Every structure is written in C-alpha cells, then in structure tokens.
Amino acid sequence: MNSLLEPGMLVRHPAQPEWGLGQVQSNIGGRVTVNFEHAGKVVIDGSRVDLVQVYDR
Questions:
Q1: Residue 28: pLDDT band by 50, 70, 90 thresholds?
Q2: In terms of CATH architecture, what is 2-54?
Q3: What is the pTM of this model?
C-alpha cells in the first residue's frame, strides 16, 4: 500500500493516532516522509509500517 503513496496524499499512522493527520512529502525507496499535525516531519520505513490513507478529514 505504501508504494502507492504520492506527495500530497493524506495519511494516518496506525500505531500513533495522537500524531494526527499527515501529508506525504515524498516516497523514495520505501522511505515515506510525512508531515504530521502533532509530530512534525517523520521519515517512516514503509516495509515496517503500513500507513492508512485518509480520503476525507
């Protein structure tokens, strides 16, 4: 699923709901950079965490 993520898409981290909504900044080589509302910029190893795409706020 993470391989389909593109910059601008909205996601949530399933194990960190307190981080809030995140916007994908980049997805390069399985490393997804996301800017979360309450955690800032986080680089996530896409092979370890399946981010959940959000279609509406």
A1: very high
A2: Roll (2.30)
A3: 0.93
